[in-house]
Amino acid sequence: xxSVELTFGESIDSSIRTDWARLAEAGLPSLAAHTSPxxxxxxxxxAGTALDVGSVQDLWGGLPLDIKFSxxxxxxxxxxxxxxxxxxxPAAGLLELHAQLHQRCAGAxxxxxxxxxxxxxxxxxxxxxxxxxxxxxxxxxxxxGQCIEARLWDSSxxxxxxxxxxx
Length: 167
Fold this sequence. Notes:
This protein is of the alpha+beta class and 167 residues long.
């Protein structure tokens, strides 16, 4: 799988990592346990097994992009398991960047396409339903800052490639 992701400036990156740590300290599933250097808080703009990003180098001139969060969201992840994430406010600049990217790429999963995409930052995967309440209670909802860089993640090579912005 390949994905195009937006990464954050220090304030959001630190805040999300603090959320990961709070969940882990409470004995709950958390992305804090994933210690790979490529594991960084991000918003996925496009993803797909055969994602072809074409020519997207000039899309990132609008970075940094202000980002605000509006709460938490839960996605199904198999029987009795869920993904817990911070919901990103779909502001005009983010939606425009997302739409422009999808005009230039092919092979994206349907749920990452405009009009189907839910912008979010994942906090925990495969969390049991009975632990969702305690997980939500462990988190601080006040987070905002900027997306500063775009990158391409390739799971087959486990590499990230900068696409634009300022790391």
